[in-house]
Every structure is written in C-alpha cells, then in structure tokens.
Amino acid sequence: MTIAFAPSSGRVLQASVRGRDAFWVAPTDSSGEPSGWNLGGDRLWLGPERDWFWRGAGRDDLANHTVPAEIDPGNWDAVHQSTDGLDLVLTATLRDRNTGAETSVVVERHVTVQADTRYVAEYETETVLHVQSGQPVDAWSVVQVPLGGRLEIGVTGQFSFRDHLPGPVDPDRFTVSRGIAAIDLFGLHMTKFGITSETATGLLRYTRPGLVMERHIDARPGGDYRDGPYHHTGDVIQVFEDDGHYGGYAELEHHSIAAQPGETVVDRCRTVIRAT
C-alpha cells in the first residue's frame, strides 16, 4: 500500500509512488515518534487563523503563534478505515485566543482512494464542516511537500499575488505562460503568498525529480476566505515556503468558503501522484 493514513490526527500521512514519497513528514526520535505537533502529510486546519492561533496584534511575530490542540492533532474519531479509504469525525470547541469566545464545530473528513498502484496514487478528500455556534469558520487544507520542486498554479486573466510575510516574494521568481504561473521552491527565504479566487483556477502541480503531484480544488469566485493574519478575504490558494526554520518544507494550502453559524460547507479536493 502506497497511501498511508494517520487517523488520530485526521490526515493522509504519506503517499508514495515507485518508492518516492510525495509529502514531507517530520523526522522521528529514537523511539520512532515525531516530536511536536508538526507531523507533516496532508492535513486539515480550521480558520480564521487570527482567532485560534494568534494572541495580540503582532501578526508577524511567530512568538505569539500557537497551534491549538483542538485543531492539530485534534480528537479525530475513525468511523471507518480500509485500504479503500478513511472516514473521520471531529467535534471541537474552538476558543478565540484574545477574547476567549467559543465556537463549536463538527467536521467530517472522507478520504476515498481512487488508485493505489506502483505508478500512480490518487485519492479524493471531502470535508464537511458544520458550525454549530459561535462565529464563521473555514476549512483550511494543507499539504506539506519537500523543498526543491517546481510549483505550477492554474491562473486566469492577469496574474497577481500578495505577500503575507515581511519577506516579500520576488515577482521575477514567477514565470507565467498559457494559464500557468510557475515558481521554484528552494527555501532560500521564508515567504508566504496568496492568490485570490478571482485569479486561481483550482490547479496546483508540484514536480520533483521522478514525481509529480497534482491537487484539483474548487476555486469558484465570490467566496469569503477569511483567514488571518496572513489570510485576507479572497485568498483561495496560499503557499508557505520555509527556509529551514521549521524543518525545510513548503505548504500548499487552499481555503473553503466560510461556514456561518448554523451552516454547513463542503470542500472537495482530488490529489493525484504519478511517477515521471
């Protein structure tokens, strides 16, 4: 089996094709266990980040940032697991780190394996987010990949992006041709940029030697992707590039439309990994 799950943390931990791993995963200690919350793989977070993760107004001060255990690893219940997929449920109470206000959510996460062979691994993830009470919440899907690859993003119209960290991305790093904006991710600087729902078409393709991973997401315009401090209304795709400070990886992220209290939002993503 080339697709490995980590049910207790609600994620696809790894997908491998011809012995090549698609995702970044955390190194383990002498007991074989990773240290800290950052396991890697393909996981789900919940936004807005400015409320659950950050304290105070210093939104570029990482000392004020804490990953809440209610979100990662979370208390996921594996309803069903087989070689064909995984069904999970998370019930959580989120707390605003500044006001203490509580928001109650129920999340279903369904991972269905479409193909798992020597040459291709493919799965579809459906996330059903229901906000029972409190404030709006969005589903924030994150896949961590090793550095050293080329990222291609499907775009339409005039390509533009916006920076979300003090160290800006050099626009000359992008090449844009025939609806694809491409950038090499080598981790020379810590950066994060976002692309709005008006620009993104829903394709993320990451290529490294011998392996290509594609993410196909719903990037319909008009959604309210409210996830700060870096995430502003309109960002459906965001890319974080670590400079080695956190372990040396890139994060390919996409955000659903926010669910209002009493509402449910469904987000779907198809991931395909192929040998090249």
**Would you tell me the structural class of the helices and strands?**
mainly beta
Strand order of the largest sheet: 5-6-7-8-19-16-15-10-13-12
Contiguous helical run count = 1
Apparent shape: globular
- Count the strands? 19
How far the N terminus sits from the C terminus, by CA atoms, comes to 19 Å
Low-confidence stretches: 221-232
Order of helices and strands: EEEEHEEEEEEEEEEEEEEE
Helix content: under 10%
Rg over alpha carbons: 18 Å
Largest sheet: 10 strands, antiparallel
What proportion of the residues form beta strands (DSSP E)?
A: over 45%
Rounded mean pLDDT is 89
Report on this model:
A hairpin with a 2-residue loop joins β5 (77-82) and β6. Helices cover 1% and strands 51% of the residues. It is mostly beta strands and 276 residues long. The chain contains 1 helix and 19 strands. The protein has one helix at residues 49-52, and strands at 3-6, 11-17, 20-21, 42-47, 77-82, 85-95, 102-116, 120-133, 138-146, 149-155, 162-163, 175-177, 180-185, 191-196, 200-208, 211-217, 235-241, 249-255, 264-275. It is globular, with a radius of gyration of 18 Å. The strands form 3 sheets. A 10-stranded antiparallel sheet has the order 5-6-7-8-19-16-15-10-13-12, with no helix packed on it. A 6-stranded antiparallel sheet has the order 4-9-18-17-14-11.
